[in-house]
Amino acid sequence: MSTLTIGAARGGLELREFFRRKEAVVFTFALPAFILLLLGSVFSGDVPHLGVSMSQLLTGSMVGAGILSTSFITLGVGVATDREDGTLKRLRGTPMPAAAYFLGKLALVAVASLAEVVLLLAVGIGLYDVKLPTDAGHWLTFAWVFALGVVSCSLLGIAASGLAKSSRSAPAVMNLPFIGLQFISGVFISPITVLPAAMVGVASFFPLKWIAQGMRSVFLPDEAAALEMAGTWEHGTTALVLGAWCVVGLGLCLATFRWTHE
Fold it and tell me: 3-state class of 46 per DSSP?
């Protein structure tokens, strides 16, 4: 069997295990939608001079945050747990290629992220009349931002799992940067231009700012690009930064990943 075939089988196993943990499923899927529900109720009305609802603006940002949540946190905590309970040690002693394990994790994250986006959009459409794009160009942008976002954040989550000394400490280790990045990346505070430029400059080094900006370009009209720091959607820069984080994340995984606690 090829590594890809084994990885697909491993992905199926990861998905079955994940969906059996009901509390983890509810928290992972419900959190971004719940935050959109709160923010959409607090920030009602339209964005001045654009005729775009605040809920429409927040939806794009929350889709980006949801991708980070279901990739970075899920893998950071999941790999740390597999390391602590001996799963990684046992898998290393089998003929299964190591790459198949990581492909299985990526499959889990891809499906979970897509399901989270569907739930989030369902809340936005049902409660706040969020409009979906109707042309192929916007959905193509969604596809490549989604793919690069999932891969880059997943690799960073695997690398960051080594920072956790145990599965109990892993959620705290993963959630600290996750929460901080949401604030400085313009997820909770919209439009992002109200944030200090220095704060946004720091956020620009990390994937979330670019994922959220890319998703806003999908769900907002072109003239809403004026709400961004550069006044444009910066699709080229978004692809470059997220692609670079894919490479950096892979390098960090290769340099720091360990199968057992040392």
Answer: strand
